[in-house]
Automatic annotation (TrEMBL):
Gene3D superfamilies: 3.90.1010.10. CDD domains: IscU_like (cd06664). GO terms for biological process: iron-sulfur cluster assembly. GO terms for molecular function: iron ion binding; iron-sulfur cluster binding. It comes from the Bacteria. This is Iron-sulfur cluster assembly scaffold protein.
Amino acid sequence: MSAGQGAGQSVGRLYTSEILGLAVELANYPINKAQTLHAEVRSRSCGSTLAISIDASQNKSIRSIGLQVSACAIGQASAAIFAESGKGKTKADLMQALNALEAWLANDADVPDWPKLVLLVDAKAYPARHEAILLPWRAAIAALSKAETHG
């Protein structure tokens, strides 16, 4: 049994065709060096990494997103879910979403209101996957924070 897997749980249930399909969608969001804001984050629990490039509008909301993800299929699916609905979000929006995600993963709240996040509901039972799920929000917040300090 792998770390973070409960008795009687099957990792096979975790890697559904929907999850694997989301991972493939990352090809629609290539990292772009021309985008003005960049950040990279790493999971302390599993070593997954996520690099993000963002162009922000004048009101500091996300105009476009590029991602480079080195993670399990759950981390990749989370990144695709983030990218699909991240456009137009501000740092405040993302911080609110991250707080809701953290509360949900800690069993203190319902699934956050973010499109397709319900597809990750089975991953909640695998604490070793939690940090990989959070990476896209953490990276985007870090990148958008640079917009505040650099203009």
